[in-house]
Amino acid sequence: MLLGAIEAGGTKFVCGIGDENGNIIERTSFPTTTPDEVLEQVVKFFRDKDIKALGIGSFGPIDLDRTSETFGYITSTPKLQWANINLVGAIKKEFPIPIGFDTDVNAAALGEMKWGAAKGLNSCIYMTIGTGIGVGAISEGHLVHGLIHPEMGHMLVRRHPEDSFAGNCPYHKDCLEGMASGPAIEKRWGKKGQELEKNEKVWDLEAYYIAQGIANLILVLSPKKIIIGGGVAKQKQLFPLIHQNVQALLNGYVRHEVVLENIADYIVPPGLGDNAGLCGAIGLAYEAFLENNQK
Ligand code: ADP
Ligand code: ZN
């Protein structure tokens, strides 16, 4: 069975065709310009593809409340051309098939649980460290939603005593995203993360903040696996530093062997690599298909 998938990012849109086993058969991507231009390309890609359902993992904030008049909208995004855009509605109009819709990070968490690093488990979190920091969560088999949806990338963190960087979150300045996203690294050090690989101080500080976010998430959600992706997490030397910092912060309080002894298998890069988001969108499509068949 063919399923459609869209990874709707603030920088680029990735569209793909896959199957119910998470295999990607075909894909394309284009920059996130105006909604009109992007939607035209999306429709062109899926036209005549015989997909049975479509999944969309989107940047946000988005409206996930099915009872809301603005369900399926991208809502108050700072990317102004995209604010108040009815993404699901525009696609549904062209393709009257079941459509699954969730945040980009929830989609990635779903992909990792179905086919990646959290396979066989019923909970995990997926953190992306890129242009922003976002976290998706699955708890007891369900994608976590809420009043709107969690915004765990903006949790508050304790400042490193030697860090004088003010932070660059437009809302909170020195929240986790404001201190540790790709642009925060670039602003603090004057170079992009990919050019700072050999500078140990950069990654010590990065791990100091990311580990606080992860420790908080362990305490709040008790996830069975923690997956960290996104451009910044390509710096593989970050992982052991995060492991050490998380253990130090928890200080033996969370008494499970995955935290105490096997933390390298607990906090890991994506099993699906760069495909987590797109595979997750295939997962959303499949869930929408199954749900529709049960009706
Ligand atoms: P997006 O968040 O837009 O989907 P990315 O996850 O690639 O895309 O995030 C882009 C950010 O990640 C930029 O700030 C960039 O400098 C940083 N980045 C990308 N690749 C790397 C890398 N290999 N090492 C460190 N930082 C990186
Ligand atoms: Zn913030």
UniProtKB/TrEMBL annotation:
Keywords: ATP-binding, Carbohydrate metabolism, Kinase, Magnesium, Metal-binding, Nucleotide-binding, Transferase, Zinc
Enzyme Commission number(s) from the entry: 2.7.1.4
Lineage: superkingdom: Bacteria
Enzyme class at the top of the EC tree: transferase
Cofactor requirements of the protein: Mg(2+)
Keyword field contains Kinase: yes
Homology family: Belongs to the ROK (NagC/XylR) family.
PANTHER family: FRUCTOKINASE (PTHR42742:SF3), TRANSCRIPTIONAL REPRESSOR MPRA (PTHR42742)
Protein name per the record: fructokinase
Upper taxonomic lineage: Bacteria, Bacillati, Bacillota, Bacilli, Bacillales
